[in-house]
Amino acid sequence: MHCPERERLREALRIALQEMAWIYEEEARIAQEQPGELERFREIIPHAKERQQEAASDYHFHLAKHRCASELRPGEMLKDQLDRARATHLSAAARFDLLINENHGGMQEPDGSFLLQQAGKQMRSALRRYMTCLNRYSEFQISGTVPPDVALAEDTFRRR
User: Fold this and answer.
1) What is the pLDDT of residue 97?
2) Relative to the CA of 98, which of 13, 38, 108, 152 has its CA 20 to 30 Å away?
3) Is the pTM of this model over 0.70?
């Protein structure tokens, strides 16, 4: 059964994720090209994050309430995972880049090197997750192989 509301909420979430990815890319670009404009630009980030979180919450609430997630095909599930991993990676990479750019490689704060190490760990972790999701999605698109966890989730929803 096709669920138009699920599709509408899914598209709203996809747009919110793309918006966040664009914002993080622009933030990194502005930090390099126009550092004076960065503070004004950063004012929009909390609003965009709020829209993304609200879109994700609405989408997942709808799936849970209406149980229409069972209609999601494995490719859609993998694409959703990939989109979320990409947004997380872009966010972590932008934070790391900003720490580097703001301090020009030399940390002025007492905890500066610790902050940089933490941001680097978060960025590497997000990149690994993104690469994993990209590989899973690519493998599915190329060979049709459904990862075991996606197949299990699909079976679980079908039994309900």
Assistant:
1) 79
2) 13
3) no
